[in-house]
What we know:
It contains eight helices and 15 strands. The protein has 326 residues and is an alpha/beta fold. The chain has two domains: 2-130 and 297-310, NAD(P)-binding Rossmann-like Domain (Rossmann fold, 3-Layer(aba) Sandwich); 133-294, Dihydrodipicolinate Reductase, domain 2 (2-Layer Sandwich), CATH 3.30.360. The protein starts with a strand and ends in a 16-residue tail after the last helix.
Amino acid sequence: MIKAVIAGGTGYTAGELLRIxxxxxxxxxxxxxxxxxxxxxxxxxxxxxxxxxxxxxxSTPDIDADVLFLTLGHGLSVGYxxxxxxxxxxxxxxxGNDFRIKPFYKGREFVYGFSEANREEIRKAQYVAxxxxxxTAILVSLTPLRADGLLxxxxxxxxxTGSTGAGKSPTESTHFSYRDSNISVYKPFAHQHxxxxxxxxxxxxxxxxxxxxxxxxxxxxxxxxxxTSLYTKTPTTHSLAEIYTLFxxxxxxxxxxxxxHVPLSMKEVVNTNKALIHIExxxxxxxxxxxxxxxxxxxxxxxxxxxxLMFGVEESCGLKLKASAF
Length: 326
């Protein structure tokens, strides 16, 4: 069994990790770390796990584990790692943003954990930086084009996310009175995930400059899920049918990324680790839609997918989840 520890265990991503890992046939969750709630039952915070686990939060910095998941606030992982006494063998998967752009820590590199594109690197990695939720949804749409040298024109992109994307701590924009029956723009052209998107696309094909990405994020009046809608000029060398073939070939070995020939909605992926993609062509522009669950494929699900790869476990193990659909 893989002995797993979750640090920062009170948030949404930690709750989703626990939901997956306590039902994972190859994993034993040995500790959930929280300095503020040490001694309290995990199910007192994550009520959906009531009756499923007897785990209690602990605060000890000494960890005897095979893998440590960091589900801390952004910018907190480096300082937290400095305080831990980790065994040399322990693998780390960081779900924050500390190592997505600056991947080195004490002479070791955090491999970018975009599972479908970096599968072989993740298999060999000791440290993995899990991608951001928007980054994952956008990269599944752009990576096949970039890998084939077909992404050279400016990209225009809108993406809408649920309220859980803002984390568990309440803010004015996550308050029910604000969010209900409401949609709003935030961080237009300046979202923090743009940095990791550009870095990954640049490293994927170093022979050409990453085109400008005009990204306008939206807050939606729902709890979970991301829908992205982007367009760029259609490559003159490829028909729509050939673009479909390119995407299907790129993701042919993926357990979770699938190409749809009919339009998409978020209900097809919420509560799953799937990413679905739909492609159309309009007046010389390629329009690509993708949908994911921001807490699963965009966070905890992809983290478990990466853990499976790192430990030589079948990639979809513990992640065969069905969408609620209605």
